[in-house]
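Annexin
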Amino acid sequence: LYFSLCYRKTQDLLPRFPTVVPVRDFDPGRDAARIDVAIKTKGVDEQTVIDILTRRSYEQRREIAFEYERIAKKELVVALKGALSGSLETLMLGLMKSTVQYDASELKASMKGLGTDEEALIELVCSRNNEELAEIKRVYKDMFKKDLEKDIAGDTSGDFAKLLLALVQTKRDDPSNVVDYEKIDDDARSLYEAGVKRKGTDVTTWITIMSKRSVPHLQKVFERYKSYSPYDMKESIRKEVKGDLEKSFLTLVECFENRQLYFANRLFEAMKTKSAKEKVVTRIMVSRCEVDLMRIRTEFKRQHKRSLYQTIAEHTKGDYQKALLSLCGGDD
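Predicted structure tokens:
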């Protein structure tokens, strides 16, 4: 509880645009009893489980879980694992964690076993802001008894590792009320001289500037950068570095410029093909539904000329689709 209270505290500093909000006239006992009946129904009544859990806030789901255990004599998470399967099960179990616990578990999962899921690792580290990363580190340690830094260091190498570790150290400046034009100019010139201007790339300089400066400052730096370089920052990244490092820097720049648009584009890319990349879709929908999914929806519609709701309806199916549409919270 201590963790979730602290988590709420830091998060309250940021305006939130959730699609999933606490339901009014909340009765956890009633919800728990309905879920109990739904799970015990022959063939499982998934619809009821979806209706309840996707339309309650995390704090409310926790109360439901407490009541469920009282009446069913087993943990709700265990019951859900037994009753559901596939992508629906993954999504529902994700909802039983707080946003920060979910992010921490997804990070752990991206580094588990033989291969590293670099794409997930990049998304989770490079798109989360300083406050979120500080919370994730604390909760990661609490959940897994290990340091996130150590796990990342053990799982990645080279400049890619250096960048992720610099971000996870959360040394980013707080936004200042004073615009420092000289520092903006210095940073823009340093980025140019470390990359496009010279043969090879001085990646360390890029990492330092992108992991330590405040976001408003960096937005101005990238603008100023154009007066030094014939290419903008994203084009420069594509020219200078490749692979995971390129993807990481691009993710950072996209999130500094418009984080919700970054998530909207990730969702769009994940649902381009006939069958969706369900892992990506689930991760973004679950991790952002109580944070900024409303704004992601707006950006999605603005950028792709169709709603996130319609896109989900076209590229997913069954109960999994119903759960996603419910988290999405409406058509635009």
